[in-house]
Each structure stands twice: as structure tokens, then as C-alpha cells.
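PT: before anyone asks, these are the final sequences, not the draft ones from last week. 915 residues across everything. Please model them as a single complex and drop the result in this thread when it's through.
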Amino acid sequence: MPLLVLHNLSKRYDLTPAVKDVSVEVERGEFFGLLGPSGCGKTTTLRMIAGLEKPDSGLINFEGRDITSLVPEARGFGMVFQNYALFPHLNVFENVAFGLRARHKPKSEIAERVALALDLVQLPGYEKRNVGELSGGQQQRIAIARAIAIEPALLLFDEPLSNLDVTLREETRGELRELVGRLGLTAVYVTHDQEEAFALCDRISVMSTGSILQTGSPRELYVHPAQVSVARFLGRNNLIRAMRLSAMKSELGEFKTLAGGHILRLPVRTAELPPLNQPCVLAIRPEQVLISKEKVEGENAFAATVQEIQFAGATSRLRLDANGLIIEAFVIGLAPGVVGDSCTVTLPPERIVLLKE
Amino acid sequence: MPSLRPSPRWILLLITLVVLLYGVVYPNVDTIATSLHHDGHWSPANYLALLSQRLALEAVFTSIGVSVATVILCALVGIPLAFLFERYSFPGRNVFATLAALPLVLPPLVGTVAFIFLCGESGILARVVQRALHLQEPPWSLRGWGALLLFHTYTMYPFFYVLAGAGLRRIDAGLAEAGRSLGARPLRLLFKIVLPQLTPSLIAAGLLTFMTSMASFSAPLLFGGNVRVLTLEIFTARQRGDQPMALTETVILAAISLVALLLFQRYEGTRKFAAAAMKGAARRYRPLGTGSTRLLAFIVGVICSVGLALPVATLLLVSFARDGQWTTQTLPPAYTLANYSRILTQRSAGEVFLNSLSMSAIAALAALLWSFCVVTLSMTMKRRVSRRLLSLLVLVPWALPGTVVAVSIAEAYGEPSLLLGSFILVGTFWILPVIYFLRFMPLVVRALQASMEQIDPSLPEAAGSLGATWWQRFWRVTLPLAGPGAIAGTLLAFVIALGEYVASVLVFVPTNRPVSIAIASELRDFNLGSAAAYGVILMAMIALSMIVAARLERSASV
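LR: through. Structure below.
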């Protein structure tokens, strides 16, 4: 049985819907991500899990218990806020001890657990410090220590790394993942940063305008985005508008691109097939596109000219024009050839994904 | 914030409703109703009578005229000073910036007295000029329009200075830089970028000045001469026992002030747009370059500083003068500590301070408790309309002139009535604390509201997610964070109540005289030194409280 179940959660502010029919299941011990652009409803969803917002409709179940209308203080979830929300009038010790004091724990236990929590975030001995004198990264760790000190049943993160600079963010990311795993905690993590979500989460729900578009492991989402908006949001993608042709050859579907009029073949399950002669969208990642300077015969191979080359260090990004069909391709290292060269582009059938609009 | 809702909300609602009903709504409605009664019937006769009396009507227009002139003069003084002292750095800047707000905390009566000693026809300045030019008569008399406007400008220009200065500080320096990069000349920048952003602040300052000037009482009383303003007319109508006329004039004065309050509330809200701008270029004080402009600015700074400090210095000097000795000399000829020792040792004199201290403390503490009720309640209110109505009702007694509050409370609680049974305030100890509370609690509410709004909403949320209940969140997070601001506001209300005169003079009980009444009566008996000594002690207490308040505010902002 999943630990946390969100069932058709909806929330509107005045008349604008913020979250629409969100359903999610989080397993025990899972690091679960809510990923989406700002304003997509991911933070509102997290706040409803924390009890800071009341859903207009829908249910929240935790360990099989309905907690939809439970006040936040009764839920026992630790939350790490985007701005850390450290109490400015309390020192580090009192901040971390706050939740323990609220539970009226004995003095000795409080001291012990605060010290342990500070150890875990690698800030031992910081008890007497004023939170104002800590750096951003240290404040962030104290916020995490405060949340894990109460031994939370669930750990909630609201973009906790977005206020750190890039190097510190990547470093903290690794430590955070390791810490949550070591303590065996279940976490729900909100972020707009795809790379961060991919690095941290076991499973991710991609959200847009209040709804969940797709839920899956980072790999699934990247390789098999179900929708155009997911494909667009997660990394670069060549989105090719095409029309299904009537002819079916073996298990490969046959499509004709609207631009360029190329024939593309790709494996499609019969159930997923779009109606005949209706425009649909195919996607292929730029790094999956093959380029060769020689003329190549084969499935989904056609002639193109190099229109633009962007040098980006480890990779080079090419813009190719195949008779009006613009294809973006990444190659490792330096690009073969120069602008204006002709070449052959191959779109490997198993790398092409058929998307829902 | 639904998470903050499980609270003893209905108790707060009850307290708030009772105080507003009995303190604000009932007295004012009762006053209006009584003003509309004539010989036991509903009739507009009182208003018709007022319209037919040339003098009363004249008072209405004089009050408005004085106030409009005051607004213009204060703007002319305050705005350029704000530009000079907020934009440029030069020697003397800091001294002035510290002194600038001095007139705001000077009790009006004490300020008036100091002004008389300094600029009055037998004051120090007049004597200096008379000696220097060998005149037979004093060179001027401190009477009438000129004197009134001079005093008003001195005491009320800080509204413009402070608000325009705050507005200037908020304006993103990057906007001016953007304007310049687009080719705008300085004058164009001023009119197209700076002033439009400053307008809400300036309108708010103008309305504040207008309301304060409409309420001004001590100055017209002591050197208004034959300038008849409404506050004075209400006072004299009450003195001669013409109750209907006093009430009718009170209603008119209240109506004018309330219109100003409604406008003020409207513009106050729009003041925030400058602050909402993105983080921009750092604002710097521009050092004044050339020697001559630096010198000019320095001279302006010195003159302003001296001008600000002179009345207070005069008061201090006169407080050491032997009563009855200072007659025709430029400066008091004989100095003594007798005035202070008399006040500090004589029982009746010491009692006056005890009266003021205890009544102000009661009012301020009540205001502190009450402000927590109101602010907590308003934070749980969902609907904007009800929040606005609450804040408007809270502000009403602050916007109404002290004269109006005193008259309406005296009217409402002067005799047994159906609503209140035999509950009577007039003639008891409690009438002044109640009036002080009503008049100055809006200051505490506003201060608390401001510091509550500064609390990051995620802090109580974080406390909630860590398992703290409503009370734990209030005691351990909200109170420690909002407390210093609230106490600073309470101290401000306390010091203003300490020197309160306008309302006190209308309803004080002889056995319970506040300091201001003692000052006025010493002045009437020409005990100038004693009057000044009372004033100096009062100012010392005020200064002490202000220093404590400033400390608290600073510690809160860390």
C-alpha cells in the first residue's frame, strides 16, 4: 500500500484554479518529485500535503488514514521552505529544537537529538550561533536539520536549493539525497529544475497549469514523454509534425512529415495509433540524431545541409535543414564539417516517440 | 491562512465589536443624533442656526483656509528639504536628519509655550530685534494668521519631510539611470519619473497635515488672536454652555476630518507601488561637488537645525528663570533651580505628573492588548471589505480632532441613557484614560500591524509544520517577532498621551489634572519659569521613551 495518496485534489484561488484533479501515490522510502514551471501548482500541492492549504475537493490519505482536514501541527511532516523560514529571534539550537519543544520532549532528549541532527547536516557545534550570521548554504542545512529532528513521517521540500549558487546547489543535492536515503525517509520534493529533479528523485510527476501531465521515473519521462508539453519541458527535443500513412509494414508505423515530406517509420503499438491522415507529433532527442558526411542508405535516412553550428564545449549543436524539415542534432566534440556542407541525417526508428498533444 | 484559524476567534470578535461599538460608533452617532435635535424634536434647526450665524460659518471657512495654507507652506518647506537631505551628502546633513522629526514629538501645548517665549512680542527674538534697532515698541506681535501659520509650519512640515524622504528612498535609483540613458535631462527626470512616483506620498502627507491643522487647538487658543477656528469655537461654545452649537460644530469638524481620512486611506494603499519594484541600482547620497553649493547646503542645514532646536532651547532656558523676574530684559535676568525643586518636592505638582503618567500608562497598555485583538482578528478575516471596514473604524478616533472625541464621549457618557443604564464617565477619573485610549490606540494598532506584516508568513507555517499549536506559534514566534514593534508603538502612544491637552482641557476633573492643564494654568498666572519647567520635564520623559522605542525598533529589525 502506498504511504501517501493524493486523490483528485483540487484548489482554486478566487476563481483561478491552482490545482486540478491531482492524483499521486508515493511509496514508503521513495524520493518523489513534483516538477513544473512556476505557477504550475506544484507548491500548492505540496502545501496541501503539509496542511498549510485546504483543498477545495479531493482526499489526502497517509498510511491509510484520511488526513485531508488535519491541521499541519498534527501531521508530523517535516517541511523545508524555499526561504528556509528559520526563526530569526532564535539561535541554531532553538531553531532545531523548536519542534521537539512543541512536543514537550525532556531536556536531555532534546539536546541529544539536536546534536544528532546537526551532525547529520555536518554542522556540529553550531548550536549557539545566530541564524543571521550563517551563510545561505548553512542556513539551508539548519532548515533540513530542523525538519529531520522531529523524525518526520514524511519530509517535504519546497524548492530548497533554489537560493544557492550553482556549485553549492549541486554539492548539497548529492548530500541531501544521501541523507534522506540513509535515514530511510520518504520525501516529496518540489522543483522547477529538471536536472535537479532527475538527479534526486526516484519518480517524478510533471505538472503544468495545475494538472499532472505524466508520472514516472526520470528515465521513463525522458525517453518516453507521453505528451508534447512534457517533451518540450524536459530537455531539448525535435518535435516533428507528421501524418500517419495508411500503409502498415510489419510492426512499424509509417508517417509523412508535414515539412519536407519525408517518410518516417517507427515502432508503434496498435492501441496508440493516431487516426489516419490526421496530423500528429513525433519527437526525437537531438543527441539521438545520427549524422554522417557520407551518403547513407537506410530506414529514416535523408539528405540535409548544415545550417548552423553552435560550439558548446563538450558537445556541438547543429541545425540541419532536410528539405524544409529543421532538425537539431548534438554531437560529442567538434562538429563534422562546416556550415553549408551536405550530409545524411538518420533518425533511428526506435528513438522516435509518438506524442499526444 | 486556514492553519491559523483554529483560535479563540469569537472572543477577539466580541472584544473588538464591543470596544468599537461603545468607543467609536455610539458616541459619534449619538453626537450626530443630538445635533439633529432641537427642543426635543428631530430638526435641522441647529444647522440652520449655525448657517445664519456669520461668526460660526466664518469659523468653518477659517479652519479650512488655515489648513489649506498650512498644507501649502509645509509642502514648500518639507519637500525641498527632503530632496536636499535625502539626495545629497554634505557637512551638517546628519545633524539635521536627526533633528528633523523633533516637532512631531513636541506636545502641541509645550511647543506653543516655547514659541511664545521665543517669538512672542515679549519673547527673546522680539527683544533682541527691539534692542538692536532701538525701537520703542516690540517689532511684531505673535498674533493672528501669520503667527498661526508660522507655528503650524514649524510643527507640521515633518509630515512632508518624512513622507517625501521615505518616498525618495524607495524610488529605484535604476529608474532615474534608465531615464538618463534614454536621454532625459534632470528637469525632465524630476517631472516625468521622480514626482509621479512621489505623488502618493505627497498626497498622504498633505492630507495628514490638513487633518492635524484642522485639529490644532493650542496654537489658535494662545496666539490665534481673532482668528476663529472651529476647534476654538467648539471650546468656547461649551464654556458658555451652548451645547447644541458645540455639538453641531463638532459634527461639521468631524465630517471634514473623515473625508480627509477616507482620501488618506485611499492614497496610502497606492504608496506601495514604488516598493514593489524590482531590486535595482543601489541608491547613494550624491556628494555635493563645488565649494559654493556645499557651503550653501551647509548654511541651509545649520539654519534649519538651529531653527528646529531653538524653541526647545528657549524652553530649557526659561525653565531656570525665576518666576516674575523676567519682565523687559532680553533674556531672563535671574536663574534658579527653584522651579524644578518646587515641582519635584511639592505634592500637588508631583501629583500632576503621577496623574498624567498613570492615565497615559493605563491607556497605552489597554491599547497594546487591544491592538493584538484587532490585528489577530483582521489577519483571520477572509473578506477584504470587512478588513477595510475594521481598519477604517479603528482609524476614525485618530483622524477625528481631539476636540471632537472629547465632546462626543462627554455627550454620550454624560448622563444615564437607555443603552448604557447609569454608566457615566463624565466627572470620573476614567474619562481621560478612555479618551487617551481611543485617540491613540490607532497608533499602536498600526505599529503592530506593520510589524506583523513584516513577519515572513512561512515562519508561523514552519512552526505549524514542526508541530506547534496555535498558542505555541503565537507565544514562540509571532509575539517575539512582533513584540518590539508593538511596544515601540505603545510607547509612542504613551508619550503623546502624556502631553495631551486638546481633549483634556474639555473634560478633565479638577482632582485629576494632567500635566498640560498645569502648564496652561501656570502660564495664565504668568509663572513662566514653572510652566517651562513642567514642559522640560515632560519633554525629558518623552525623549526617554522615544530612545527606548528606537532601541526596540532597531533590535527588532536585526
